Amino acid sequence: MTSLQEDTLIRKLDANEKMPYDLLLLADPSVVMINTYLPFSDVYILEQQQQVIAVYVLLKDNDALEIKNIAVNPAYQGKGLGKILLQDATQRARANGVKRLCIATGNSSIAQLYLYQRQGFEITAVQKNYFTLHYPESIYENGIPCKHLIRLEKSLL
């Protein structure tokens, strides 16, 4: 959907294909948590030269779609692929007639918060102590303990 290099493609992962857990775990360190939303979601992969280098997961929620997971292989980060994935998710949401696109991240995910807001997402809620209550291991990013879940959304009207 989004304009990409000739050898790059974003497509829905087929049911018989291997789930890219290595990428999904970059954004969510718990296989247990990932497996709670995967059965109800659509998984989109970004391939470059037939190699999966990025992924995002969309979950339908009433009049909205939520990006439950979005990740880019570290070797390809900093090249605008996260922005391309967000734009692709936005186009798919609009094509499906949903009114809102939602995403959430941790309080310590500074680069992600920057990217999401630059792409038109606005902070709508903070769930205090979400990560300390739902994840058995402590999470640290950028030298900051990840405790709170920050919810953002973008209106598609």
TrEMBL record:
- Organism superkingdom: Bacteria
The alphabetized UniProt keywords are:
Acyltransferase, Transferase
Species, as recorded: Chitinophaga arvensicola
Q: Which InterPro entries match?
A: Acyl_CoA_acyltransferase, GNAT_dom, YpeA/RimI_acetyltransf
Protein known as: Aminoglycoside 6'-N-acetyltransferase I
What Pfam families does the database record attribute to this sequence? Acetyltransf_7
Entry annotated with the keyword Chaperone = no
Q: Where is the N-acetyltransferase domain?
A: 8-142
Carries keyword Acyltransferase?
Answer: yes
List, in alphabetical order, the Gene Ontology terms for molecular function in this entry: acyltransferase activity, transferring groups other than amino-acyl groups
Record-annotated membrane-spanning stretches = none
